[in-house]
Amino acid sequence: GFFVQNPLMGFWLDSVSRFAVPLFFILSGFFLKPGLQNSTRVYLRKSSGRVLRPYMIWFAIYNFAWLWPMIFEEKPFHFFKLLRLLLLGGGGGYHLWFLPALVLGAVLVLSSEKLEFKFRMLIFLGLYLIATILRLHFADMAGPNWLTRNGLFFAPIFIFLGTMFKARGPLAMWCQKNALALLAFGLALHLAESFYFATTPQRGLDMSFGLLFYAPGIFLVFQKFSTGHFALANWGQWVFGAYLIHVLFLKWLSGVVIGAKSFGRIDYWRPCFYS
Questions:
Q1: Among 271, 146, 201, 246, which residue's Cα sits nearest to residue 1?
Q2: Among 17-31, 161-175, 195-209, which is the least confidently predicted range?
Q3: Rounded Cα distance, 64 and 58, in Å
Q4: Contact (CB, 8 A) for 141 and 12
């Protein structure tokens, strides 16, 4: 909404910021505790309380805020279409997809511990590349965004990269030495892909080949400057809290600054479930 008058600026800024979600997955893999890395069962037990419980609470909060105005609207709506939207698209909590994707992606990474490094890399990289090719070249076949940008196709490769950087093996050390080059190459490739393939005004791509280099490059560059009170490990709770509330904050901010009344892009779905 802020870049309606200047869609080109909105497009480039949106494209540049697309490293964020992959970066959060990398950070999650990097900070997997040693005790959790050895047991998928332990991870599931821990994550159910620390990740899935906040997910369910905030999913309810966002959808209550989203559906509340409809109570005062006179239009009848189709209950089953609304239910399908909530279950498949997230409704007002559409952005919370990251949390179940994180749990599923981490389970896949942890479950593959016994496989050789190269096979794990090929599996997770292959899943991401298949989904990205579908989104870029066969969008009609790929279906809704959540079918490819999820815990199966999207999250595992970045979580795996996080564990790789933590282990500091030969490939991780090479990436560390060439962090700026990875960042620059990934950003250039991602912007080129966004410019060529993106079809929505003011929005870049949320899946691209460039993100495989761009997001790790961002992580490794910041890691070099992460010391003392600015250590990445200290950001966890603050980032998690900001993630949960940021859409509500942006909704409030858009109302104050530009007088927007819609609850973000999810209002575009409303005509789909009116009777």
A1: 201
A2: 195-209
A3: 10
A4: no
Structure tokens at 15: 């494209």
Q: What is the DSSP string of 30-43?
A: HT--HHHHT-HHHH
Report CA-CA distances (Å) from 11 to 24, 108, 214, 215, 217: 22, 33, 17, 18, 22
Can you list the positions of beta strands (E) in the chain? none
Give pLDDT tens digits for 208-217. Answer: 999 999 999 9
Q: What are the beta bridge partners of residue 274?
A: 77
178-215 pLDDT, tens digit each: 999 999 999 999 999 988 887 666 577 889 999 999 99
Record the tokens describing residue 78, joined without a space: 């189709």
- SS3 state of residue 1: coil
In angstroms, rounded to a whole number, what is the distance separating the alpha carbons of residues 181 and 123? 25
Query: What is the C-alpha R_g of the chain?
Result: 20
Does the pTM exceed 0.90?
no
131 closest CA partner among 108, 109, 154: 154
Distances (CA, A) of 110 to 66, 84, 127, 156, 221: 36, 31, 16, 10, 26
Q: Using alpha carbons only, what angle is made at residue 97 by residues 238 and 52, rounded to the nearest 5 degrees? A: 65
- Burial (Cβ within 10 Å: 0-12, 13-18, ≥19) of residue 223: middle
